[in-house]
Amino acid sequence: LGWRRDTAAVPLLVPLLSDTDATLATTTASALGRIGSQDAVTSLNAARENSNPAVRLAVLEALLRCAEDRLSAGDDLGAAELYADLFHAKVPPTIRTAAWRGWVLSDDNQRPGLVVKALSGNDEQLRLVALKLVRETKDAQLVKVCLRQWNSLPALAQWAVLDAHLQFGTEALSTVRTASKSPHLAVRIAAWQALADLSDVSLIPALTRAAANGEPVEKGAARDALARIHGPGVREAFLANLNQAETTEKAELLRSLGKRGDTATVPVLLQ
């Protein structure tokens, strides 16, 4: 009956939710979850406090299934209501985390606030899911809200926001500049790596300073970026900075020019 999504069967199935046979009750909960009608949801909600833990879990999983089906069918509002209700209820951590994820995906208005709160909060499970969603949703509004909270975000969250913004191309340059000044080493390294692909010549001096004075791992990332950065004006930017750089930075620029194998710079270097 569940696989057939037979809504007419709901009144017949409801009494079986409270059957003393746990196997029968859990199977009934699963069937009602597949049917997913409003009557099925109402019945499942009424059975959430079943004294049998196995039945209670089956009921909660069935409600998640109802929410997922609504989201798949385009009923974002209906899905969000179900997910939010489950999230705020007294439920096991796995159910709560799944409900939170569904709520974020189904409620565009609540998404930025929910994600930022999770990124800077103490709930490790929600934070891990939030980090993944930031990268996967490609939500420009979410990125903007996260950027407004940049300084309060931990390292992994800043890194995720940077990765998310990079999906929008050169628009992310301002975020890369911000990330290059982060107090978190991993975030700065990610910024240097991104620069090689975005080819912003204005940041060659910052890259050179990182290559000359950064921490060992950071030096490697900056050197790699200096060797790979490409595009109009890059050669000229290298040579202009070579004339102005400190000794250690000049050495890094010369090292990079050698790695780049740009023969057109040879006459200038020989002067």
From TrEMBL:
This is HEAT repeat domain-containing protein. InterPro entries: ARM-like, ARM-type_fold. The lineage of its organism: unclassified sequences, metagenomes, ecological metagenomes. It comes from marine sediment metagenome. Pfam families: HEAT_2.
